[in-house]
Predict the structure of Serine aminopeptidase S33 domain-containing protein.
Amino acid sequence: MAPPTVPPPAMKYFWGDSPEPDAYYASLGLRHTESYYQSPCGRIFTHSFHPVSAAHDGDVKGAVFMTHGYCNDSSWLFQTVAISYARWGYAVFCADLLGHGRSDGIHGYVGDMESVARASLSFFLSVRKGPVYASLPAFLLGESMGGAATLLMYLRSPPDAGWTGLIFAAPLLLIPDELYPSRVRLFLYGLLLGLADTWAVLPDKRTGGKFKPKSNRDPEKMKVIASNPRRYNGAARVGTMRELARVTELLRESFGEVTAPFLVLHGTDDVVTEPEGSKMLYERAASEDKSLILYEGMHHSLLQGESDENRDRVFADMRTWIDERVRRYSAAVPAANDDTKEVTMA
């Protein structure tokens, strides 16, 4: 009999038990703030990162609005992405999705992605349209399921939102066949007239509902990710899988409506979200300025679970892309006649 799995050691913060947050962020040259925002769909937890070198909040290259993936929140290892962008000279704003982290909702439940996206979009637009950031370049960034939420936010944004660009890291746009929820199960649970929607009963076909080992390649980082006290570790809820199946299909039908510049990144060995979905977005989007980078042999968690060397490659590509778009578009809405198209096979 195999020995029982030893749970990862408890950690106060993703960097350890010390220093305290203010000291940690200051050591990186950053200022960090936390607050709650009352959206039309529920209260969500938000926080922001600014370079200390900025004379005031608007003294930055632009603003980046970030959305984490399923089971996670924006205050654990995902914030290393926000920290990186802030150190590159951007103001960064994050929000925990409804049903995740410190936001309202049943933990791990995404029964209505429209409401989930609307809640975060409401906060992002309240910042983006404010006097400080209205004239600056502004980008939406989403990882994994957060990529699907980000694309939905873009599609539901008002015409005057003025998003300069979109950034997707291993976005959930196409569910792999091996992970697709059983249609028979969903149908049978659906016969209960919604009573089963929040039940955490759907098995993970690869791992029995536990932490997915193939989504992260670095074992030490797997331990850090798994030690997140706000991470949802239960089985998938019925309504969540039903909704993800629905919304990914809806998004694929809407790829042609995407006109903003975008960058999409995906590992070729991703078994959690299908790289083919990113290829379809690139091929079908109407955007004139669009970039697809496929990383040979990399897994799902490009930004948090790969080796430092691989992670640094991904971050370098992200920095090059966003800095170039700021240079091209300045504070204006992206130009419609830019004819840059690029596919990079890394």
Notes: The radius of gyration is 19 Å.
